[in-house]
Amino acid sequence: MTEGVVYVDSLAVVAPTAKLGPGTKVWAFSRVADGAVIGMHCQFGQNVYVDRGVRIGDRVKVQNNVSIYSGVEIGDGVFLGPSCVFTNVEFPRAFVERKTEFAPTRVGRGVTIGANATIVCGVRLGEFCFVGAGGVVTKDVVPFALVVGNPARRIGWTCACGERLPELGPVRARCRRCELGYDLSDSCRVEDPERFERWWLERVKGA
Q1: Integer Cα distance of 46 and 62 in angstroms
Q2: How far is CA 48 from CA 83, 137, 143, in A?
Q3: Rounded to whole angstroms, how far apart are CA atoms 98 and 69?
């Protein structure tokens, strides 16, 4: 397949009003509904559903059996593991119409959501946080947090590259893989924001 060309498998369905960015690929048995807006170089595995009006950033990878419902917004560089789950109504009933009550869910740039994790609607996942496989997120997650369990709780911090951060004392951390540094004195923040943004743009925007 030519770089930059949109690919839609013959067994996938993309609505006429959906917008797919250059280089995006939609594989078999997936469906993208009306009004969805999807960025560049995204990949959608088999049996993925993107609901009406959903917005998805650039270089997002969605593994098999994931449904992204109306009210969910996905940032750049997000990884959605196999069979992870989003909801969009807090108290659903089959016999009560609540389409005007969708609770928004925001997934920040660079977030990873592991296989079979559940994201209860109405939460915000801070940039580059990491939700472990099978976790159940019921409240906001701060940037760079590593959370696991039901309900999900923080057990550490993760680098933007995905590695768990070794804590060098109470206030600093440095990634062994990419050597990005972090300030842990108040939550988790990058030490050198300018260097960090250059690093990020090289990987997600191709700058």
Answers
A1: 9
A2: 9, 21, 26
A3: 14
Q: What is the secondary structure of 129-142 as a DSSP string?
A: -EEPTT-EE-S-B-
Q: Range of 119's domain?
A: 7-164
- The answer to whether 67 touches 100, Cβ cutoff 8 Å, is no
In the chain, how many domains are there? 1
What is the tens place of the pLDDT at every residue in 155-178? 999 999 999 998 766 789 999 999
What average pLDDT is seen over the chain?
95
Q: Is residue 200 part of a domain?
A: no
197, part of any domain: no
Q: Look at the chain and count its residues.
A: 207
Q: What per-residue string of b and e applies to 117-133 under the rule 16 or more CB within 10 Å gives b?
A: bbbbbbbebbbbbbbbe
User: Is position 187 within any domain?
Assistant: no
Q: How far apart are CA 159 and CA 196, in angstroms?
A: 11
First to last CA, the chain: 22
Q: Residue 181's beta-bridge partner residues?
A: 174
| 77: nearest Cα among 128, 29, 120 | 128
Q: How far is CA 5 from CA 1, 8, 42, in A?
A: 7, 10, 11
Q: Are 119 and 105 in contact (CB under 8 A)?
A: yes
pTM of the model: 0.95
Structure tokens at 90: 């807090």
**Residue 113 sits in a domain of what CATH number?**
2.160.10.10
